[in-house]
Amino acid sequence: METNGYSHVLLDIASHMNADAIRTRFPNIYSTCRKAGIDITREPIPVVPAAHYSCGGVWVDEWGRSSIGNLYAVGEVSCTGLHGANRLASTSLLEGLVWATAPRST
After folding, report:
1. Helical ranges in 1-106 per DSSP H
2. CB-count exposure of residue 14 (10 Å: 0-12, 13-18, 19+)
3. Which residues pair with 100 in a beta bridge?
4. Rounded to two decimals, what is the model's pTM?
5. In the chain, what's the furthest Cα-to-Cα distance?
6. Which of 31, 41, 85, 100 has the fewest CB within 10 Å, making it most exposed?
7. Do the beta carbons of residue 56 and residue 79 sit within 8 Å?
8. CA-to-CA distance for 29 and 46, rounded, in angstroms?
């Protein structure tokens, strides 16, 4: 988008599903778009990037320990580095599994 100066990209669901299926599968998106004057059963949806989550505020070591004694942080609250800078679906579940089974030192 930045390279070409586009203000948005288009998500075309209408050419992949029939109108009834779209309204049934995506009722909230359909309703929200209709309020904005967009009929997603006939035309593409304009989309722009947005910050989905803000997470990772508590810095921890490789064992999930923070700089505060006996405070362990895992999942969305922690900055573990397990997933780099990405926040993908269910990463907090994976982190919970990894950190929950890691041995703790006292």
Report:
1. 19-25, 27-35, 91-101
2. middle
3. none
4. 0.50
5. 61
6. 85
7. yes
8. 12
